Amino acid sequence: MDKSAYSYLRFLSGDENAFADIVKESRTGLTYFINSIVRNVDAAE
């Protein structure tokens, strides 16, 4: 199991700190995704 999947399972189990780990692990992809919606990289970050 990779780290992201493990963090997700921790989050589903109620570990609130796991959400921060998910965001850290996925930050670049999340930024690109949000930027594709808002069309502003500063806002996306």
Walkthrough of the structure:
It is elongated and about 35 Å long. With 45 residues, it is mostly helical. It has one domain (3-44). The longest helix has 22 residues, at 17-38. Helix content is 80%, strand content 0%. The chain has helices at residues 3-12, 17-38, 41-44.
In short:
With 45 residues, the protein is mostly helical.
Layout of SSEs?
Blueprint (H helix, E strand, L loop, with lengths): L2 H10 L4 H22 L2 H4 L1
Helix pairs in contact: 1-2
Question: How many separate structural domains?
Answer: 1
Q: What's the helix-strand series?
A: HHH
- The count of strands amounts to 0
Largest sheet: none
- Radius of gyration, whole Å: 12 Å
Mean pLDDT: 95
Helix content: over 70%
Shape: elongated
Cα separation of the termini: 28 Å
Q: By helix and strand content, what is the structural category?
A: mainly alpha
| β-sheet strand percentage | under 5%
Low-confidence regions:
none
Number of continuous helical runs: 3
